[in-house]
Design a protein that fits this description.
One of its GO terms (biological process) is DNA transposition. This protein is of the alpha+beta class. The protein has helices spanning 34-50, 77-95, 124-132, and strands at residues 8-9, 14-15, 18-25, 54-61, 64-70, 110-119. The protein starts with 7 loop residues before the first strand and ends in a 6-residue tail after the last helix. 15% of the residues are buried.
Length: 138
């Protein structure tokens, strides 16, 4: 495992922001195989590039996927998530027609909900201790 932090820089900031995202399929349907996950990885990488973000990890099972995304502070995470889910749903169904549901069912690939957690960096307790130990001006 690479323990070196890769800081990124913008015009006025230096940052390293990671989000752990989990997307679940509609009705928790077991629809993904290895070929679907491979296709999703390419789709997610392209969407992330549009947001100047990087998909660092992707894995999943038949009914959900986990993503580790490095993103800049100018990106609203909810907008990135909406784009990742929307674009992947449309493109994956074009690439894999077997994922298209009959007309009488809703043709959504993803559940409308998702999980997002901050990831990487020091644990909150370490950051809290560091801030508490800063010298106050006299």
């Amino acid at each position: 495992m690479d323990t070196k932090q890769h800081y990124r820089a913008g015009r006025h900031c230096v940052f390293i922001l990671h989000a752990h995202l989990v997307f679940v399929t509609k009705y928790r349907g077991n629809v993904f195989g290895a070929e679907h996950l491979e296709s999703l990885e390419g789709i997610f990488r392209n969407v992330c590039a549009d947001f100047e973000a990087e998909l660092e990890e992707l894995n999943g099972e038949g009914d959900h996927v986990h993503l580790l995304v490095n993103y800049p502070p100018k990106v609203a995470l909810s907008r990135l998530v909406n784009s990742l889910k929307g674009v992947s749903s449309r493109r994956l169904k074009l690439m894999h027609p077997e994922l298209v549901k009959p007309a009488y069912q809703k043709n959504a690939l993803w559940s409308p909900s998702y999980f997002a957690g901050s990831a990487g960096g020091a644990p909150i307790s370490v950051v809290r201790q560091y801030i508490e130990q800063q010298a106050r001006p006299h």
